[in-house]
Model the fold of this input.
Amino acid sequence: MARTLTSSETDDIERTRTLYTWVRDSITHSVDGGHKDLMWNATDVLTAGHGLCFGKSHLFVALCRALGIPAGLCYQRVRREDGSWVLHGLAAVYLEQLDKWIRLDPRGNKPGVSADFSLDMEKIAYEPSYDGEWLDQHVYPEPWQEITHLIDLSPGVSEFIENSGSIRFPPVNQVRMQGISICST
Done:
């Protein structure tokens, strides 16, 4: 599928842009679409046509990796309008032509949320702005173990979102991609 989507692209930057835009715009965010089923892995998200930010990030990373573009997962803690907390999943790709990692947020745009593809300025769905919010600067090759555990405990989308708020800090023992970290620009 990655090759089909990018068949007319000539370099990894354009391939990445095409894959990112396709996942962001063609795969519905589960909450925005009113879906209750929790889609997690790339295959299930692709088949169902929807996923939370985590699932959409997993699909984007899988598509990039299928083309040999290094990609990984990123996370942030966000305060919701009701004051509760939620964990948000993003992705990062390494663009060899630019010799840098860029973080991308395939969550999907909606009123008040605009996450565009940019090589110069990070454009994610939720900029940290409240005490207690954070944007982890590391890139991970696999989902955090705590998040995978929550998937097993959560029967659906709303329960997973609620449970994700219990994660207060990034893990200290999780494998990171070669010690890579991303600094926002």
About this structure: The chain is about 30% helix and 15% strand. The chain has a mean pLDDT of 94. The first helix runs from residue 2 to 5.
